[in-house]
Amino acid sequence: MMKILEIYLIKLFNSLIVAFLAVMLVLVFGNVVLRYVFNSGITISEELSRIMFVWLTFLGAVVAMKEHAHLGIDTLTKRLSPNAQKFCVVVTSLLVLGVCGLVLVGSWQQTVINLGTEFPATGMPVAVQYAAGIVASVGIGAYLVRNIYVVLIGQANAQDLMMGNSSLDQIETHGNNQNNAGSGK
């Protein structure tokens, strides 16, 4: 059930990222053309583009976390023993989880503070912009907890969970194939 929810959420996030990028392109390009050719513009273009850019960035961070696509430097950790690598993955994941907690608290506070404040052109609550931090910190935090769990139970090795390496989905698939091969299935 959780795997299905994850698949649909990531598809939703990817779809939103594409939609936001397309709408931003149309709004900004259209606004530039209107300003220089017709000496007018789209009033809400700048605000909507900014809101969509914030959401695009934070949703992209969650998708990148799932795919282990964030920038990572493994010069030291790849030289360590497997147990030391596991320790490093758990410690760094806990540190990032702490940062996610700070982002969550700060985003929540800013969202609540700005519920009554509206953007001047669109009339949308400014809280919409800050809510992206809540979604991202919860999403990234969930992946960090899962990564810690699979390392501690031995389902994945630390090298596979380091940034820039294969995704956890591939690890789970290979792990299941190896388990099935060993049992004669």
TrEMBL record:
The keyword Translocase does not apply. The chain crosses the membrane at residues 12-36, 48-66, 87-107, 127-145. One of its GO terms (molecular function) is transmembrane transporter activity. Residues 24-149 form the Tripartite ATP-independent periplasmic transporters DctQ component domain. It holds the Pfam family DctQ. It is found in: Cell inner membrane. The keyword Cell inner membrane applies. GO terms for biological process: C4-dicarboxylate transport. It is a multi-pass membrane protein. Keywords: Cell inner membrane, Cell membrane, Membrane, Transmembrane, Transmembrane helix, Transport. It comes from the Bacteria. GO terms for cellular component: plasma membrane. InterPro entries: DctQ, TRAP_DctQ. Part of the tripartite ATP-independent periplasmic (TRAP) transport system. The complex comprises the extracytoplasmic solute receptor protein and the two transmembrane proteins. Belongs to the TRAP transporter small permease family. PANTHER family: 2,3-DIKETO-L-GULONATE TRAP TRANSPORTER SMALL PERMEASE PROTEIN YIAM. This is TRAP transporter small permease protein.
